[in-house]
Specification:
The complex is a heterodimer of chains A (about 300) and B (about 290). Chain A has seven helices and 14 strands. With about 300 residues, chain A is an alpha/beta fold. The longest helix of chain A has 18 residues. Chain B is mainly α. Chain B is built from 13 helices and four strands. Classes of the chains: A alpha/beta (about 300), B mainly alpha (about 290). Chains A and B meet through β10 of A and α2 of B.
């Protein structure tokens, strides 16, 4: 585990629908802003779900999808242009529609940039919302696994939007050793009866509870902008392993949220509130009950 | 134990009651204003690179709210209010239209549609009230789109959710503009938003009317008040059964009335039905979002 602070930059913006080139330009603009930022070059830059194309693209997924390697190649080139040689100290997470030899996914990747960029992980969204305003499963295939992976800072995982609404997915990542979970998201705003959209409140509550239950950092990057009348509610935020919101961006403005975290906070939180340890102890019993369809103990 | 000692040990319970009847249509109007102003800026400026809006100003609350929102999103000098009276329209409507334009500080112009409407109806002298009303609504749309072309502006829709659900509008008339900021707000919510925005009370507090026939009001036409209809509509859309809604305090007659109007007008909330022939039928197989 690293004992250095990990300097995160969460970028939220409104993509231009279906225009990958224009959205790469927006990413380049974010990189240039970060190059000039007084806080210096971040360790990890996190972008939202489907940020290369916009979220609601329906039957046009194939037209905007890229292979993970190609998506990384393009973003790496932008980072090199903005940061020069310093880009090799940057890791990135971003969401994109993935074309894997004709199989289409709603994916997000984690990579270390540099002269030879390293693609460390690609997560394919498992929980594809297909109800109400959502219709994902009609257009992309379902991912099949949650996987923790190693980074130079510690163990991490990626869950995309609804994946992270299911605490079981977070449990799997935490049990695999993840200390930090990146959550690229695209959440359409609805419920305007209080001072902020109801989905913003729900996401904050969900992430706080899940972070505290598992003693884990949750790093949520939210898409912005209106797509066909549906407005996405940025609200990018970092939640600490005690369920504490470290910082949160506005729900309706482009922003780069800078947050430095220390992964040793994970151990401190898990020692103070050993929920994950308790869960691991009971997990075999719970899984057995689930598989048997009833109680294994009277 | 003495009575006094027992009394001293009795805890003083505070009874905390849940609000069993929260208003399902309550809005934070400041948040709604912020949301809809962002929507207008995003749709016009960011997406379409258009900085001007045209709004048909009827003198009623819906178009007043849209005019105020557009003025805040684009700046009042970029909003063109067009009043389009027919010769039988209530004169008060036009006065209220001028009042709205003045209060929102937007451009105000009157284009009388009587000669255009009558020019066509001369060929159809036996057309009844409904047909005449539809011709007026579609003529107004013709004016709004043409003014938009002239001004390099976008026409903005003013239909609310209640009238959309009731089908209480002219298909391809009132519903034609490409974007609509208030189409997901029930009429009673539009009234709340209007008061928040500072729409003149004379416009907010008068009975709603389509003003196609003299003396007409929406609530007389619909046979139910918006206050009751909106709550029934909201319950239907959320999935409550008619029996559930009656248990919530509404008369079965009211629930049936609202359900039948919604059920009979689904077609009005869609584009034309196209016969599918191929495996590339538009909006069936060939699916692209409106903003792609």
């Amino acid at each position: 585990m690293s004992h250095q602070a990990v300097d995160l930059a969460l970028v939220q913006f409104a993509p231009r629908k279906g225009d990958v080139g224009a959205n790469l330009d927006l990413i380049a603009a974010a990189f240039k802003t970060l190059r000039r930022d007084a806080l210096g070059v971040p360790d990890i830059v996190v972008f939202p779900e489907a940020c290369l194309s916009g979220y609601f693209v329906e039957g046009a997924v194939r037209e905007v999808a890229l292979s993970a390697e190609e998506a990384l190649r393009r973003v790496n080139a932008l980072a090199k242009s903005a940061f020069g040689a310093r880009h090799s100290s940057i890791d990135v997470v971003f969401g994109f529609y993935e074309d894997d030899a004709g199989k289409l996914y709603n994916s997000a990747l984690y990579a270390s940039l540099g002269a030879k960029p390293v693609l460390r992980h690609v997560h394919r969204k498992m929980f594809l919302p297909t109800y109400g305003v959502f219709d994902e499963e009609r257009f992309v295939s379902r991912g099949s696994s949650v996987g923790a992976f190693s980074t130079r800072f510690g163990k991490a995982a990626i869950l995309i939007c609804e994946d992270a609404c299911h605490s079981l997915a977070i449990t799997v990542a935490a049990v695999q050793g993840a200390q930090i979970i990146f959550v690229p998201s695209a959440s359409p705003g609805r419920g305007l009866e209080d001072h902020e959209p109801a989905n913003v409140r729900l996401w904050r509550d969900l992430l706080r509870v899940a972070a505290a239950e598992h003693g884990i950092f949750l790093v949520y990057a939210g898409l912005l902008g209106f797509e066909g009348g549906k407005g996405f509610t940025g609200s990018s935020r970092v939640v600490g392993p005690a369920g504490d919101v470290r910082a949160e961006a506005p729900f309706d403005e482009p922003a780069i949220l800078r947050v430095a975290i220390r992964l040793e906070d994970v151990a401190v939180a898990r020692a103070a509130l050993p929920m994950l340890g308790d869960l691991e102890a009971n997990l075999p019993e719970l899984v057995a009950q689930l598989e048997s369809g009833g109680s294994t103990r009277r | 134990m003495s009575t006094a000692r027992r009394a001293a040990k009795t805890p003083a319970f505070t009874v905390v009651r849940a609000d069993l009847n929260p208003d399902p249509l309550a809005l934070d109007c400041a948040l709604v204003e912020r949301w809809l102003v962002a929507f207008l800026r995003d749709e016009l400026i960011r997406r379409r690179k258009i900085s001007r809006a045209v709004v048909g100003i009827s003198g009623g609350v819906d178009s007043a709210v849209v005019a105020f929102l557009c003025a805040r999103a684009l700046g009042p000098k970029n909003v063109y209010g067009i009043r389009m009276p027919y010769r039988t329209s209530n004169k008060l409507s036009s006065q209220h239209g001028r009042l709205v334009a003045s209060a929102a500080d937007i451009h105000d112009r009157e284009i009388d549609i009587s000669s255009a409407v009558d020019g066509y109806l001369r060929h159809e002298p036996r057309a009844g009230g409904q047909r005449r009303g539809n011709v007026m609504a579609r003529t107004r749309m013709l004016v709004l789109f043409d003014q938009s072309a002239k001004l390099n502006a976008l026409p903005i829709g003013t239909g609310n959710k209640s009238e959309r659900l009731f089908g209480y509008f002219t298909w391809h008339g009132d519903d034609s503009p490409p974007i609509n900021p208030i189409g997901d707000l029930f009429k009673t919510q539009v009234w709340d938003l209007a008061r928040h925005l500072g729409v003149p009370p004379a416009v907010v507090d008068k009975p709603a009317t389509a003003d196609l026939i003299q003396g007409q009001t929406d609530e007389d036409d619909l046979g139910i008040t918006y206050a009751r209809a909106d709550r029934i509509l909201d319950a239907i859309l959320k999935g409550f059964t008619p029996e559930d809604i009656v248990r919530q305090g509404f008369a079965a007659r009211e629930v049936d009335l609202v359900r039948s109007r919604v059920g009979a007008t689904h077609w009005k909330r869609h584009l034309a039905t196209t016969a599918m022939i191929s495996t590339t039928a538009i909006n069936e197989f060939y699916l692209r979002p409106v903003d792609y």
